[in-house]
Fold each of these.
Amino acid sequence: MDTGLIFKYFTTLNEVQKENFLQLEALYQDWNKKINVVSRKDIDELYLRHVLHSLGIAKIQQFNEGAEVLDVGTGGGFPGIPLAIMFPQTKFTLVDAIGKKIKVVHEVIEGLNLKNVTARHSRVEDLPGQFDFIVSRAVAAMPTFVHWTKGKIKREATHERKNGILYLKGGDLTEELKDYRNVQVFDLKDHFEEDFFETKKVVYLPQKFKG
């Protein structure tokens, strides 16, 4: 699966962004041989299963210049690195508790020469600071994730949408989200036609978490 998939859905990328997306596969192929952070099947379909999936968030939310976004449980750098390429004027902090994963993230950031990304080996609970949005890919059920990230979201919003969590999830979320009256769920199949996205969603939970 090549970068054509990215260029198909995001038609206004500049040359630097295109080059960055083109470089991703070689960087991940290389580092995955040394430190296995992406499964064999997923590395063969990197642009579909990781890059385009991460960019599903960009179909729901555009990040402003100077905004600060935290990627919790980033693993090999998803969704944070594709989003950082897409929004070069936004500051991204990528955090994971597993050191070898953050090592790969550091190397990819360096390989792409991304100036708007910081990677941290830490639990999110121990991370200082607050952010406009928190993004993630299904690292825990929403109530657990809300607990982990409590106090990490800024009160003052600079986007039209209230600050909050943008969470990539799949499947039936009825039970998991039943206590959140103000949650919004966006189907990625409305934005991407590939079968992979049939059950994939972006869950948006605004900053005032009312149970």
Amino acid sequence: MARYTGPVCRLCRREAMKLFLKGDKCYTKKCAIEKGRVTPGQHGLSRKKLTEYGTQLREKQKTKRIYGMQEGQFKLTFNRAERQKGVAGENFLILLERRLDNVVYRLGFANSRREARQLVRHNHYTINGHKANIPSMLVSPGDVVAVKTKSNESPKFRDIRELAAGRTVPSWLELDADNMTGRMVALPTREEIDIPVQEHLIVELYSR
């Protein structure tokens, strides 16, 4: 499966905002945005004003980069959201939040969504006691996501456990940091999703 392997700080610079793609580094002065790095490219500072289409496209690209997804999977998720009852844009964001890699990140079991995706692929987590190594799996209310016992004993997860204990998880999740388990207590609402995204622009783009 295709994936972006270039410098992730470049993606934040392109969107001119922090996308929190490198975990703890994003909170330090080493962050490219904190350093005032400009939009990448020879003419980064002289780009023309965006058209309506350009604004919609940038919003889509930003959302894809936040969740670490490629176009094919992103569009399939949108199509699924459109078929559901309710507001398509809100349904879309809720589906993105329910992805296993995102839930792992939200619970504090990984330092970034990018790391969460890798750790999921390497079989470090379970859902309701069963093997779960597909980042795009959707977590449902009542599901319990846990770090495998064997993984929990590794130095990597000892460090993660210390960090998880001090983190605040969204209200739609419940965390047991001592046992490195978490449960989805309800579907997230739009108000509980703190992603700086205007989802209606993505709906408009895909509706062209």
